[in-house]
Sequence to fold (114 residues):
Amino acid sequence: MSDCLFCKISAKKIPAKLVYEDNEVVAFDDINPQAPVHVLIVPKKHISTSLDITDEDNALIGRLFRAAGKIAEERGVAQRGFRLLMNTNAEAGQSVYHIHLHLLGGRQMHWPPG
Ligand code: 5GP
Ligand code: ZN
Fold:
């Protein structure tokens, strides 16, 4: 999608601090980190929200979680604990309409998240 920020980052048209890449997934540090580790894990395929995921994407969604685990190991938060989340639509605070898993770690997380 030509005017999508995360499509542009995954196509390297806009710079980001990449921390992981494979054929279908890219991950980079969040520009406004909310924890010592705050990485966004993004499919290269444009999918607007979690509601737009189809059966065709089942393996791709699995790859997002597998990438998240690898990054959590690399960043040293896997055993301590980390949070994975995907905001969906306005009331959840979704601001970029290209799905992404937030990986947050390196500090105590709170619940409810607010
Ligand atoms: P959302 O609010 O959609 O769940 O998450 C979007 C995230 O993207 C936010 O945490 C925001 O800080 C991050 N973000 C927005 N623009 C950029 C950017 O240009 N580069 C990077 N690395 N992160 C961005
Ligand atoms: Zn996109």
User: Anything to note?
Assistant: The helical segments are 5-10, 58-74. The two ends are 31 Å apart (CA to CA). The pocket of zinc ion (ligand 2) is lined by residues 1, 4, 6-7, 46, 98 (CB under 6 Å).
